[in-house]
Amino acid sequence: MTTTRLTVAGETRSFTLAVGETILHAAMEQGLHLDHACGGVCACSTCHVKVTAGAECLSAASEDELDQLDTARDVNLDSRLGCQAKLLRAPAGGAIAITIPQWNVNAVREGAGH
Ligand code: FES
Known about the structure:
The longest helix has 7 residues, at about 25-30. The chain has one domain (about 1-105): Roll (Ubiquitin-like (UB roll)), CATH 3.10.20.30. The chain is built from two helices and seven strands, in the order ββαββαβββ. The strands form two sheets. The chain has a five-stranded mixed sheet. It is an alpha+beta fold. The chain is globular and about 35 Å long. The structure holds FE2/S2 (inorganic) cluster. FE2/S2 (inorganic) cluster binds near residues 36, 40, 45 and 83. FE2/S2 (inorganic) cluster (FES) binds near residues 44 and 81.
């Protein structure tokens, strides 16, 4: 298990991410609701997150993911879809760190249902 730090509007929460698990699935399983309008099938961009540390330990973005990110706001080189980015290996001596784009912070709710 890898500790993942999620920062939303300056507040940081943590959840664990297992090898093979997506950021969206792990966060939701641990009570952190990330928006996911299409249900996690790479058909929207509402699960847009920015991976600011440990990105090299995640799966590479597919063409479909990159196409969806093209429709998202506030995209940069750290941008990933939470439903597509899977942990491939634990980061050496560190954690995965992600932030939610500022425009989307209201979509993150702690303790919300799926
Ligand atoms: S939830 Fe729709 S692309 Fe991730």
